[in-house]
Amino acid sequence: VTMYANDTASNKVNKTVSFTVDTVNPEVTVNTPVNGTTFTSSSAAINVTANDSLSNVSSVIAKIGSVRNVTLSFDGEYYTGNTGTLSNGNYEITIIATDLAGNVNLGENVSISIAVPSSSSRSSGNHYSSDLSEGITSSVIKNAISDSDVVYGNSIDGDYAEELRENLYNAEGYEIDRNTIIVGGPNANVLAEKYDSEFGVSITNDYPGENRGVIQIQNIQVHVGNFIKTYQVIYIAGSDRYGTQAALEYFKTLDELPSEPITVKWTANGPVLVE
Asked: What is the domain partition of the chain in residue ranges?
């Protein structure tokens, strides 16, 4: 739009401004989970492509049935997250994408089923791995540790990992074939280096920063022969040793597995949540 003005002395000036009219909803594609998938773990990874050619996407939220809403993180290409812990049953996941003009697409949804096999540890709620460390009170966290291999990289991270359970695995030569907890970042743990890009937050020496660590969960698909199996992987790592320690100590205090990455920092008083 160009505007013109002139005065009685015949002085003239003009100004041109541009703007965009956007009444189009963002385009959304749900990459994972695939509609109709049944998971034998208690959570599912979410990966969404969302685009808006006119005013850009401002937020993408996954509505997990009537359980919770999860704000997905943008990694530069995809919007990713995790459903968080779900009970056995059927769930509809609705993706709500909003652009900067306020247009909303909430028409993309998939249905999944959670069917975690029963076991004595789950049915009784009292039987956990005998090597489980003391000081963990949540049955959800106890089950998660009991049902997982704990994998560390260097000796320092190994000492931290022993705060979860006694029986540990070194990352060298380890291949994921069950639920796994990775302790330590890519510089110290080759398993973390292999799978770091699968998570919403990539761990580097600079991010999340000095004395800071992140707790995050992702379902990782692994090829086993002619089959693709999905395992829950909990990633506990920091930019330095204190960041990893903060994340691990904070993980022990949780009541539920987080549906989104949690960032914490190590202080003189122990781990503190970073808002």
From this structure: 27-114, 128-273
